[in-house]
Design goal:
This protein is of the alpha/beta class. Helices cover 34% and strands 18% of the residues. Bound molecules: flavin-adenine dinucleotide.
Length: 601
C-alpha cells in the first residue's frame, strides 16, 4: 500500500461544520498543517441546500434567555442546558463573523439585518439570505477557507474508517475516488463533520450522500451514539421527491389546510388562528409556526380522520401561500416558487402546494461534550453528525446552521490545541491498520465474486423497515419488527456482490460502504428507540404516550458490540430551566430559576 499521508489535523467533511472547523483551526495556530477530506466537492455538501435561515439573537426585543428557553422547551427538555447557553451566546458573534466573510444576509429597509419567524421560536431571530441561506453560508465559508494555504483539500476522497492506536484517534483511511487508491491520512487530531444519515429512511429531504458514514465510523471505533432514536420529520416536503418546502414559507405567513378546507392545526393545541394576511407577530409560536414534531404528528391524525388528499405519491395536505401575493413570494421565498413549479407542477402564486411530512434531520449523533470532544482522545465531532446536545428530542428549525458555526469553530480550536500538545504518531502501526482495511475492502467487496445479495435490495428493505417500524409513531412490536429486520439485513449484507470491479469512481463500491454504515446506525437507532419507553419530542410511542422524566430524562448512548447494541444512559445537564410542559400558542415567559438540583436519572 502507498505510504501514509501525514498532517497535524484531519477534518472529515467539507460542509458547514467542516469548513468552519478548518478556518478556526487555521486561525488558532497558523503553523498547523490541516487536511480536509470530503467525499464530494465541498460546495456539494448538504449544507448548500439549506433554505430557511440561521437563528441568533440580534433584535432589541429578543434575549439570549428566550432563545435558550425556546430551544430547551422545543427539545422537550432533553437538551443539555450548558451547551444551549453556550450556543445562544456564541450565535450572534458567529453570524456577524459570517457577514464579514461575505455572507449576504437579507436586510430590512433601514439596512439592518432582517430576521424572520421560525417554528417554535417565540421571537423573530432567524437570519436569512432569501431562501438560499445554506448556499450563501457555504460559499462564504468555502472562499474564506481558501485564504489558508496550510489547508490541503482531499476532495472526492471517501473515508472508510478511523485509525486508533495507543488509545488515541490518529487519522483515517480514505479512498481517492478518482484512482481507487486507498491511503492512510494521519493526524494528531481528527474532527468528524460528516453530516446526518436521513437516507436510512425512504422518504427524506436529505441528499443522497447523507448516509451517516461518520456516525458509523465513530460507532465502530467505540464512541457511543447519543439520542439516536430522535429523528425529525419536517411537516412540509413535496410528495414523491421529498424535496423540502422551507419553514420560511410558513414564517412568511403560509398556512396549512386539509381536504375540508380547514386550518386543521387549530385542533392541536397550537394556538388560535389569526386571519390570513395578518402580519402582526404575537402568534409566533402558534399554529403553523408550532414545532416540527407537533405539526408532523398532527398530519398523522388528520390522515387517520380521512382529512387528507390522496395523490399518486401518497397522502398530502395543502400549504397555501397565495395570500402573500406574487411580490412577497418572489422577494422572500423565490426558491419555494421555483421548486413548486419544477417538482410539483404548480405555481404557488395561484395554487396551494401539496405537502406531507418527510424525514429531515437526526437530533442524535456522535456523543460529544460542549468542547466537541468525544470519549476517544483525539477525536472531535461537530455539525449534524454530532450530538452535543442542543437539539434534545426535537430541533428547532434554523438552529442547525448556527450549530455548525458555533460548534464547528469550537471543534477546530480544540483540535488544534490538542494537535499542538500531542506530537508523535505511531506511523508503522497505523500503516499496518490501513493495510488491513485495504485487504478487507479488496477481499470483501471489490474482488469478491459469487455473492447473491444486491446492494439496492438490501437498502430498499432497510428503508421500508425503518419507515414502517420507526417512523413518526412507534410501538414495541413495530420497533422489534424493524430491529429483527435490520439484524437480518446485516447478515445478508455479508453476502452482497458487486458488478463493478474497477477502481476509478467505483460508485457501486461507495454505495456498498455507505450501506454498511446505514445498517449500523439503523440498528443503533432502533435499539435506542426500543428501550426508551416514553413519548418525548419526535419519539412518540403509542404504547407509552406520556413523557416520563423520572426514568427517561436521560440521554441514551448506543455502544457497538458484536451482538445487538448496548444502550446505557447519561444525565441531562439542567442549569436554569427545570423540566416543564411544552406550551405553544400563547405568550409565556421563560421560567429561569437558580441552578436546580436535578439528578437527571
Ligand atoms: C433540504 C434541507 C434544508 C435545510 N434547511 C435548514 C435551514 O434553513 N436552517 C437550518 O438551521 N438547518 C437546515 N437544514 C439542516 C442543516 O442544513 C444541516 O443539518 C447541516 O447543513 C449539516 O451540515 P454538516 O456540515 O454537519 O454536514 P453536511 O453539510 O451534510 O456535510 C457533510 C460533509 O461530510 C462529507 N462526508 C460524509 N461522509 C464522508 C465520508 N465517508 N468520507 C469523506 N467525506 C464524507 C461530505 O462530503 C460533506 O462534505 C436543512 C437540511 C436540509 C436537508
Amino acid at each position: 500500500m502507498a505510504e501514509a499521508l501525514q498532517h497535524d489535523i484531519v477534518i472529515v467533511g467539507g460542509g458547514g461544520a467542516g469548513l468552519r472547523a478548518v478556518i478556526a483551526a487555521a486561525e488558532a495556530y497558523p503553523g498547523l498543517d490541516i487536511a480536509m477530506v470530503s467525499k464530494v466537492y465541498p460546495m456539494r455538501s448538504h449544507t448548500v441546500s439549506a433554505e430557511g435561515g440561521a437563528a441568533g439573537v440580534i433584535k432589541p426585543n429578543d434575549t439570549l434567555d428566550e432563545h435558550a428557553f425556546d430551544t430547551i422547551s422545543g427539545a422537550d427538555w432533553l437538551a443539555d442546558q450548558d451547551a444551549v447557553e453556550l450556543f445562544v451566546r456564541e450565535a450572534p458573534r458567529e453570524l456577524v463573523q459570517l457577514e464579514h466573510w461575505g455572507c449576504p444576509w437579507s436586510r430590512e429597509p433601514d439596512g439592518s439585518v432582517a430576521v424572520r419567524p421560525f417554528g417554535g421560536m417565540k421571537n423573530e431571530r432567524t437570519w436569512f439570505a432569501a431562501d438560499k441561506t445554506g448556499f450563501h453560508m457555504l460559499h462564504a465559508l468555502f472562499q474564506t477557507s481558501l485564504q489558508h494555504t496550510q489547508v490541503k483539500r482531499y476532495d472526492e476522497w471517501f473515508a472508510t474508517r478511523l485509525l486508533v492506536e495507543d488509545g488515541r484517534c490518529q487519522g483515517v483511511v480514505a479512498i481517492e475516488l478518482r484512482t481507487g487508491q486507498l491511503r492512510a491520512i494521519l493526524g494528531k487530531a481528527v474532527i468528524m463533520c460528516t453530516g446526518g444519515g436521513g437516507r436510512i429512511f425512504p422518504f427524506t429531504t436529505n441528499a443522497a450522500i447523507k448516509t451517516g458514514d461518520g456516525l458509523g465510523m465513530a460507532y465502530l471505533a467505540g464512541v457511543p451514539l447519543k439520542d439516536l432514536e430522535f429523528v425529525q420529520y419536517h411537516p412540509t416536503g413535496l410528495p414523491g421527491t421529498g424535496i423540502l418546502i422551507t419553514e420560511a414559507a410558513r414564517g412568511e405567513g403560509g398556512i396549512l389546510v386539509n381536504n375540508k378546507g380547514q386550518r386543521y392545526l387549530a385542533d392541536y393545541n397550537l394556538g388560535t388562528p389569526l386571519d390570513v394576511g395578518d402580519q402582526r407577530h404575537p402568534q409566533l409560536r402558534s399554529m403553523e409556526l408550532g414545532p416540527r414534531d407537533r405539526l408532523s404528528q398532527a398530519f398523522m391524525h388528520e390522515q387517520e380522520k380521512g382529512n387528507v388528499f390522496e395523490g399518486p405519491y401518497g397522502t398530502y395536505v395543502h400549504l397555501d401561500v397565495r395570500h402573500l401575493g406574487e411580490n412577497k413570494i418572489d422577494s422572500k421565498i423565490p426558491f419555494v416558487r421555483e421548486l413548486a413549479k419544477n417538482y410539483a407542477g404548480i405555481d404557488p402564486v395561484h395554487q396551494p402546494i401539496p405537502v406531507r411530512p418527510v424525514v429531515h434531520y437526526m437530533m442524535g449523533g456522535i456523543s460529544t461534550n460542549i468542547s466537541a470532544e468525544t470519549v476517544l482522545p483525539g477525536l472531535y465531532a461537530a455539525g449534524e453528525c454530532a450530538c452535543v446536545s442542543i437539539n434534545g428530542a426535537n430541533r428547532l428549525g434554523s438552529n442547525s446552521l448556527t450549530e455548525l458555526l458555533v460548534f464547528g469553530a469550537i471543534a477546530g480550536r480544540n483540535a488544534a490545541e490538542w494537535a499542538r500538545s500531542h506530537p508523535g504518531l505511531n506511523r508503522a502501526a497505523l500503516e499496518r491498520q490501513a493495510d488491513v482495511e485495504q485487504q478487507r475492502i479488496a477481499h470483501d467487496l471489490i474482488n469478491k465474486h459469487g455473492g447473491t445479495e444486491r446492494i439496492a435490495t438490501i437498502r430498499t428493505e432497510l428503508q421500508l423497515a425503518m419507515e414502517s417500524g420507526a417512523g413518526i409513531y412507534r410501538t414495541q412490536s413495530s420497533l422489534q419488527a424493524t430491529a429483527d429486520k435490520v439484524a437480518e439485513l446485516k447478515q445478508r449484507y455479508a453476502n452482497i456482490t458487486l458488478d463493478d470491479h474497477s477502481l476509478s469512481f467505483n460508485t457501486e463500491l461507495t454505495s456498498a460502504l455507505e450501506l454498511e454504515f446505514m445498517l449500523h446506525i439503523a440498528e443503533a437507532l432502533t435499539h435506542s428507540a426500543l428501550q426508551r419507553k416514553e413519548s418525548r419530542g419526535s419519539h412518540q410511542r403509542t404504547d407509552f404516550p406520556q413523557r416520563d422524566d423520572q426514568h427517561y430524562l436521560r440521554h441514551s448512548l448506543a455502544h457497538h458490540t458484536d451482538a445487538a447494541p448496548r444502550i446505557d444512559y447519561a444525565d441531562v445537564a439542567i442549569t436554569s430551566w427545570p423540566p416543564g410542559e411544552r406550551v405553544y400558542g400563547r405568550a409565556e415567559e421563560p421560567a429561569r430559576t437558580p441552578p436546580a438540583a436535578h439528578s437527571g436519572s
